[in-house]
Amino acid sequence: MFIIPVLDIKDGLVVHARMGMRDRYKPIETPLSPEPTLGRVASGLRRVHPFRSFYVADLDAIERRAPPIAAAEALSQLQPPADVWLDAGCFTVAEVERVLGAERTSCVLGSESQTGPEVLRLLNAHARLILSLDFREDAFMGPPAVLEGPALWPARVIVMTLGRVGARLGPDFDRLRAIKAVAGSRQVIAAGGVRDADDLRRLDAMGIAGALVATALHNGSLRGDEIAALASNTGEP
Q1: Which of 30, 61, 179, 208 could cross-link to 203 by cystine, CB 3.0-4.6 Å?
Q2: CATH number of 2-234
Q3: What tens digit of pLDDT does each residue of 105-131 get?
């Protein structure tokens, strides 16, 4: 399976995300970087493992306080270059196409930002479109037609359980199993709650293709050799 580190951006800095309570997010304090800037934290994560891809949740763009591709551009100086999975709150075809027009950038279409299934209907075949099915507790965040229409889903689907983000509660295994059961051949990616390599191995055994991880990388509970062993099974995206 593949593991992708998460960078949450607020006020231009990497923040510690916890349980989706965005008003409480503070700049991250991590042994991997002396400061919470995007480039420095990404470089620190690469000292754990040579990650080829990063997931970026740009809260400034989601809240319409920054251009949708600003964070991806900020990572463009990394060497070797990185692929970026960018959630910038896009909800129109034009916004999604702008993100997809950026080099090495995939557009994460967050269900919480959608007003209906129209963008999925038009763009779901694009190789760099990723759908994030967002949940808070038991509630789906987004139009019901998005959750209830797996035929509209693109090739990669993130299952984001916000209440588990940064909370060390473990992944939402039951929900992931339910989504995988209707996802067909699509890759299902876990987000929220990964604590360590044991969680990742359990996800791998379930057929989950990948996981988004943040806290476990910063606190050292997920090591580079463990990531390498898991990534060797199927390769990274």
Answers
A1: 208
A2: 3.20.20.70
A3: 999 999 999 999 999 999 999 999 999
